[in-house]
Amino acid sequence: MKILVLTKRFYTGRDLLSDRYGRMWELPYFLAESGHEVRGFALSYRATEEMHLEREGGMNLGWQSMSIGLLPGIGLFRYWQEVKSCISDFKPDLIWAGSDVFHVIMGARLGSIFGVQVVADLYDNYESFSATRLLPGAGWLFRRSLVSVTGISCVSGILARKIANQLPTEPKITVVENGVDPESFRPMSKATCRHRLGLPKEGWLVGVAGALSASRGIAVLGDACLLLQQEGVPVHLVVAGPRDRNFHPPMSGEGFDLGILAHKDVPLFINALDVVVIANIDSEFGRYCFPVKLYETMACGVPLVAASVGAVAELFSDEQYCLFQPGDIDGLARVIKAQLYGPARPNLPVSSWREMAHKLEAFLEDVVASSPMSKSE
Hints:
Helix content: 25-40%
Order of helices and strands: EEEHEEEHEHEHHEHEHEHEEHEHEHEHHH
Radius of gyration: 21 Å
Shape: globular
Distance between the termini: 15 Å
Oligomer: single chain
Strand order of the largest sheet: 5-6-4-1-7-8-9-10
């Protein structure tokens, strides 16, 4: 197949192209590895240097990035024209569009103009994004676009059910969870990882590397660690990642803030900890997201504690020992303490990005094969 990928360039605090990061990088990469011809457009909402990648990894995979620039109207028009030109020249069998409502809307529109099948990829509840709420009519256009596309790939079962229930007709839909890179995320020596990150060799370290924001309920982690310290539990808080401007983690008891880590150092961070905490809140975002850090932590074999919300609550329905209720400081402290004194790890499979790409591949091939155009040909 010839597959055109439409996505934003920066998401979850990372650069898709420079960092070779995340779902919108990994799944197209392994689709190309399987022999498909993949072209990607990555739109930056910032004024950033544009990039062109050709035959990435020696495969038939190419990426082009464009910046919206200082004049958004002109930048978006230029981007629209470039994508249309690419479709005319590349003649894709399918457009895979995701990362936010804008790219789903644009993908659906381009598919209609050029008569190309479109699969929308939803790795979050995009309607909960602040940008969606700020753009008048964006939510309505997004839902209308989901009705018009041929298929939808969702990051979790709970999100797939939400989408299926809100659309007037039942879409062709599949669940393609996030995966991990097993070569990077694997058990490592705790002592070695702590040394490389400048963390103390001794003591219990609890924390998280990821988005440190109020929308994830991250404040509860610092409060729970303070509570444990007051109880005499020798635990130290360790955090890393992009954060809200007003996020100031309590660092009493020799806490550690490592700032924003390079993606290659995240496996070191996870393996340096005794317990990884994945906080969240029961919100339109929290209920439908699937934290990548969850599987990354499991792949490293490190005990974890997670907020019992949405997809995570469903996944760990038989693993209640590692769950806490969102916002429950006492409950979080209690579960962390239990994991420190008697660590337990979920007995659940962790899929690689390659495995998830094969699942997506089968779905995309079915979409193309079942399309009216394919049948007429």
